Structures are given as structure tokens and as C-alpha cells.
Amino acid sequence: MSEHDEAVDTDRQDSNSDTPTRIAIACQGGGSHTAFTAGVLRTLLDEWGDDYELVGISGTSGGAFNALGTWYGLVTGDAERARTILDGLWTDLAADGVQDRWMNSLVTALSRMESAGFPLPSISPYQVLGPEVGKQRIREVLERYIDFDAIPGLCDRQVPELVVGTVDINAGVFETFINDEVTADAILASAAVPNLFEAVEIHGHLHWDGLFSQNPPVRDLMWLPPDRKPEELWIVQINSQEFEGEPETLDVIADRRNELSGNISLNQELGFIERLNGWVEDGTLPADKFQQTSIHRIQMGKRFHCSTKVDRDPAFLDELRTLGDQRAREFLESRADT
């Protein structure tokens, strides 16, 4: 945390000690690694009590699954329902049965070989049936827990903002789907990795994985009305921010390249917020209309090979969720000490 963020936090604690802190949570994408985010969110929902009020949540790719599950559970029930949905989503997305587990092991092994430089044939997802079968399975799992037809009606009342990130490949622009715009197709588009899945058509345009755009969406969370604007933004960050030494082997180079590509848009968006904070602090923007937002990251803090982003082994997903639980508890403890 920067000195500026610490000052913002101190001022907030002095003036709003009896009211919950308004927070927004942004969930970075990263395939199977986003099971970590499910563990983080489960624990936050269970442990934060009345100290925090969720005013917005966003996500990209697998992070969008978590954002949607959390949002839907909260607005149709409570924290316990949200935790149940998160558990159900990741249990059902895990590799199940002999054939599915065999295919998962094969895909993970091929991904590891490719990152190590082995020459492997490349096949377009439009040339084989498997990817669309996988996409249909994801849709069925989502619809098992989420009534997408009910979402517009749920947005009629004051509920947290829900934001899902994609990229419009026809217009060549980032596109977010907000609140009642979030459909099963929007979630699938956010997770449509180009070399794995066909693009998803929405409103006459084709969409790919949001990892190419806002990973995760942040700016949309900042446009809430003044009384709902987040005082704190919590980033659940899948990709490591820092790296010690120099990547030299092909697989390590692939890992670091993957991490950097996933963090570029995030750091750009956070830089925008930090600039706004500075303008509020120096009086360029009026403090009665603009709210400073301090930024905090909940990071995985452990590296896994980039090939495991496609690994749906149940034991691996459980390991990630357990790690998420641990990091969330550490984060809340650190917040309590400030």
C-alpha cells in the first residue's frame, strides 16, 4: 500500500468508523487458476461481517464466473447462498469421470509441451467438435445455478454493480456487459479463448475472451453514483505482479509472458484510478462529487505453470480454493491491523 493509500484509509476510519466501507471487487481472469478467486470470495463473504458493503463486482473469463456467482447469490439470498453457488460452480466444472479426466490430463500435457517449445500441430476450434461441446458444458453448469432470465428484474433494486469484460473482435474495442446486459452468452464470450473456443455472437458482433481487454474491468466500477462509489477497490489478482531474476528457459519465458499479458490492462486501469485520486487530493476535482478510491490486491502469491490454467483436475482446483481461503484470511487480518 502506498503512503497516499494509507492516508486515505486513515481519514476514512476517522470519519466513517460506524458505517461499513464501500468496496468493489474485481476478479482477474486466468482459466482454472480462478478457482483461487472462488476460495477468496467464499472467505471474504464469511468473514467480513458488517465492516464492508459490496457496491460492485466485476470479472473476466473465469473471474466472470466467480463475479456472477457471488452477485447472484447475494441478490437472491445472502452470503451463504453465494458461497454455495461458488462451490457448486467449481465442483461441476472440474473434470469428472474417466474419459473427462483422461482428456483433461491430455490437454494439460499438450499445453505444457507447447510452452516448452515442442512443435505441435495447431487446429482451429472451428475444425473440430470438442470445443463447442466444452462450451455447451460450461453453459449448462452456469444455468444450473443462475436464472439468467431473472437478472433484469433483480437489477431493478439497489444491488451491487455487476460487470463482465469481453472484446468485440469486429469493432476492435473492449466491451463490458453491465447488470441486466449479463447473459449466458456474455459470460461465455468473456471466456472464449480464441485458440480453444469459437467466438460468441452478441448483438450482431463476435466476441472473444476478455483477457484481451480489461482483465478485469475496473473503470466501470468507478462510475457509480457518489453515494455508491467504492471507497476501496480490491483486486483478486491471478497473475504474479513481480518476478525475481531473468526468465531463460522456454517454459519460464512462456509463464512470465502469460503473466505480463494478463496484467498490462489491469495496471493501466489502476493507473487511471490513481491519477483521479491525485486530482481529488490536489483539488483539481471537487471532493464533494468525486470519491478517492484506495487500491488493494489479494494476490495468489504462488506460481503454477501456465499450462495448469487449463487443468480441471478436482484435487488441483481444491488446492487453489484452499489457497484462496488462506490469502483472504491474511488480507482481512492485515486490514484489521491498519
Automatic annotation (TrEMBL):
GO molecular function: hydrolase activity
Pfam families: Patatin
Ranges of Basic and acidic residues composition bias in the record: 1-15
Region (Disordered): 1-21
Annotated PNPLA domain residues: 25-222
SUPFAM superfamilies hit by this protein: FabD/lysophospholipase-like
UniProt keyword terms in alphabetical order: Hydrolase, Lipid metabolism
Gene Ontology biological process terms, A to Z: lipid metabolic process
Name used for this protein in its record: Alpha/beta hydrolase
